[in-house]
Amino acid sequence: MPRIFGTYNFVGERIDGYLEPTALLTNEAAQALKAVSDELIAKGYRLKIYDAYRPQRAVDHFVRWAEDVSDVKMKPYFYPDLDKSVLFEQEYIMAKSGHTPGSTVDLTLFDMATEKEVDMGGTFDWFGPESHPDFCGNPETGQYNGDNSKSPTGRSITEEQFQNRMILRRAMLNHGFKPLDSERWHFTLKNEPYTDTYFDYPVVSLEAN
């Protein structure tokens, strides 16, 4: 279930435009993600999707929330090291989202043996350098170096947590997705069909229409 459908997210309430607990993608992105899933299932993992297509009305909701600097109820969980006033400046919140064209997905790994999410060393939608793919390692080579100097409070991740991030990253890149420098969970189909198109239809299961 997309986290945005519930209340445990950085806003602390269900986000506008999410009418059902489902995730939508363009056909092209969905087919590529199926190939990622097939590769990872063979290694004992499944994919858990946090968010996919995001309507513009949801992005507008984020913007309104970010403009209200007095609303910090979720700060301890998602941005304890940041003042909320810097979220626009540091591009954690933007008026346009790569999710809105429909070929971007936020996701993690689920271990079929343990029946738990794989430990990636931090929560989804954490605002800070700890979420960057290059935190404590080099994502291009897959080498862990333990360098946590970018963390404002000295947070760190282990080599195992870094390598778990790399398992997901390699599988996504293998099947036509490109990563984002600031979010380890965020991937966009390289050849997305609707570049710079900002859709606003609500998130509902297609079977319901």
Largest sheet: 5 strands, antiparallel
Overall shape: it is: globular
Mean pLDDT: 95
- Could you give the distance between the termini? 19 Å
Residue share in helix: 10-25%
Taken as a percent bin, the fraction of beta residues is 15-25%
Account of the protein in words:
- The chain is an alpha+beta fold and 209 residues long.
- It is built from 4 helices and 7 strands, in the order H-E-H-H-E-E-E-E-H-E-E.
- It has helices at 27-41, 56-67, 75-78, 159-174, and strands spanning 45-51, 104-111, 116-117, 137-138, 143-144, 177-180, 183-189.
- A hairpin with a 4-residue loop joins strand 4 (137-138) and strand 5 (143-144).
- It starts with 26 loop residues before the first helix and ends in a 20-residue tail after the last strand.
List the helices and strands and how they pair.
Blueprint: H1 27-41, E1 45-51, H2 56-67, H3 75-78, E2 104-111, E3 116-117, E4 137-138, E5 143-144, H4 159-174, E6 177-180, E7 183-189
Antiparallel strand pairs: 1-2, 2-3, 2-7, 4-5, 6-7
Helix pairs in contact: 1-4
Describe this structure in a few short sentences.
The chain has 209 residues and is of the alpha+beta class. It has helices at residues 27-41, 56-67, 75-78, 159-174, and strands at 45-51, 104-111, 116-117, 137-138, 143-144, 177-180, 183-189.
